[in-house]
Request: fold
Amino acid sequence: MQKLVTIYLNNEGYRVKGKRSPDQSHGFVEEHLEDYLTAGWEIKLITGTGGANNYGVVGCSAWAIVLLEKS
Reply:
């Protein structure tokens, strides 16, 4: 069985009150697939798309596209 998962990545979310600034978030790790991996899914392929945003400020946004497989 296979599953296609997309993860939206956007550093603008860190500008929201109570979140880290982009400088504070450098190197910060966020786990997005832990529940799938714990349930026995395996990553078969990862790719991505995206780049600079168009909000008129420094930032970026992208999609991580992950193909998961489970026997």
In short: Residues 7 and 64 are 5 Å apart (CA to CA). The chain has a mean pLDDT of 80. Strands lie at 2-10, 42-52, 60-69. The helical segments are 34-38.
